[in-house]
Amino acid sequence: xxxxxxxxxxxxxxxxxxxxxxxxxxxxxxxxxxxxxxxxxxxxxxxxxxxxxxxxxxxxxxxxxxxxxxxxxxxxxxxxxxxxxxxxxxxxxxxxxxxxxxxxxxxxxxxxxxxxxxxxxxxxxxxxxxxxxxxxxxxxxxxxxxxxxxxxxxxxxxxxxxxxxxxxxxxxxxxxxxxxxxxxxxxxxxxxxxxxxxxxxxxxxxxxxxxxxxxxxxxxxxxxxxxxxxxxxxxxxxxxxxxxxxxxxxxxxxxxxxxxxxxxxxxxxxxxxxxxxxxxxxxxxxxxxxxxxxxxxxxxxxxxxxxxxxxxxxxxxxxxxxxxxxxxxxxxxxxxxxxxxxxxxxxxxxxxxxxxxxxxxxxxxxxxxxxxxxxxxxxxxxxxxxxxxxxxxxxxxxxxxxxxxxxxxxxxxxxxxxxxxxxxxxxxxxxxxxxxxxxxxxxxxxxxxxxxxxxxxxxxxxxxxxxxxxxxxxxxxxxxxxxxxxxxxxxxxxxxxxxxxxxxxxxxxxxxxxxxxxxxxxxxxxxxxxxxxxxxxxxxxxxxxxxxxxxxxxxxxxxxxxxxxxxxxxxxxxxxxxxxxxxxxxxxxxxxxxxxxxxxxxxxxxxxxxxxxxxxxxxxxxxxxxxxxxxxxxxxxxxxxxxxxxxxxxxxxxxxxxxxxxxxxxxxxxxxxxxxxxxxxxxxxxxxxxxxxxxxxxxxxxxxxxxxxxxxxxxxxxxxxxxxxxxxxxxxxxxxxxxxxxxxxxxxxxxxxxxxxx
Length: 758
Fold this sequence. Notes:
The protein is of the alpha/beta class. The protein is built from 27 helices and eleven strands.
């Protein structure tokens, strides 16, 4: 089995975003440019929180009194929550826990899977650990990390439990993508009622819906273009609210800085009791967007995001919250319109326009994060395959998913029209984001022990510090379930049911393929012709197996009188890394004796790679097989120890063979044209078998794709029958088929169906 690249040298360097490059070579100008662009994609959600934080915090029975204890207490909670969670946890700590430059819940889970072997992906092989992106820490395991790994190995149920826990956070993030556009846009548009009191709420809802439709309609242009359009808006917005904050501090209450003392938090809880505790469900909205900031890290770089946050976003938002608190300390009865009431009369309409645009931008971060999460779920067999469009040729990872985009739009419109109240939207919002943050904290605790090899004390410190704060906010948000908090719960459990059902069905499908493999002895007994007429051409048989002969081929042998001269069993699989470089994507091996002309090609993808072979896959595959034949012959001559074991070629000196392969692949790529003109071929390189493969390619390439249909056994429970026979069957019928992903012409496609029972 050999790993190699069949690419031109210029094709080897596919840009995976600036986060994949060495920052030492990244100029200061590029970093600052990315920091500027990140404002429009990463920080839009976080920067629009002042529109509704104070309003939602005082939406219950909590009221303002003359001594300002309540407003100062809420401001103190906002400041310390923003500082501890947003600044310390996410910017200083979480940004260091990246998976080859990628962030988010799945990035943390991927790190744990590689270091503790928790992966649920089928077809994982030891050779996958040789991927450059698969790098693990070289330091030896500590007794704590060894004990934790052993615990997960002995208890597979906890591995599944960890997956469900990760899916919970993922589904809450997707639910966040539904609520954020609705609350941001509706909050901004409703500000016009400050100046036009007689304006009916129905008109606010209509305008909000029009803006939301426009927002989702421009998503196909891609993150790169959206970032350049939106970044000036967010920058102007942050400067506006910070300037207004400074104005309000000096005009209304210069003593507001005293609220930065944590003593005011204790006073708030002591004097107001349960009402002060419930108000925390609104306070937590001040850090909405920090999780999407972490999830969108792969679109830019950790350094650029840190610069933008510490130098602009953090100080501007703190000044905005302080200024609004200063205004409220003198205007207790304006709490439900405090943000717009605090704007000076002379600049109200310009700020209102900027606020509306900023609210639109604020939705972009979660929409981009939702696209990224769905893409990762598809790669990890946790979501049906959907159409994924890469919107940038320069920066890899910026994607657009049409189906998800329009579903999100419909759900956002439903929330906006159905609730018509920012307080109820805020309660739903708070529960979603706090749950995601707590999931991230728990995963980070495991990363500290298993990946970073740190002690339990440091991990527990992280868990207790951040987890206790997040649990406090979760407890306050749970009490608001009946006031809108049921929305993210309902959405999350619905999406999780889809994910779990799809994952279960795919696992059972793979199990069926493994248990029904065709015996190698049976294949060898048929002889080189496999009991059929071998006609010119290449047959690409797609299966889920990385070893053995799939059952679908036995179906062909039994029912078809003829088959192609060259057979290639292709397995496209995902590995637990974000990206697989082009020179490591293909793994080629031979099946059976040489005269059978049967090969296996494993195509490896990372969970953020585009699984669409629209870049001349046939030519690259043929080139890879020819290179394999040449290197196989070279190794045979050098070692004379080539053997056949279960159909795969093994070399005694594997390291030497791989070294020979990589060296030769670098110097022999020029011998990989796809013309069969003998004048362009070096006779000493292309031997008889290579010429046969090239001629077979000229005769045509046929794609053979198997369609497996699952049916629940008659003895299965009603729930299982419903999940398999209806839900999984519906998802399988409506997801994207492999032939569509590969862009195969119908004239070159052969489909065969099989039914299996689970």
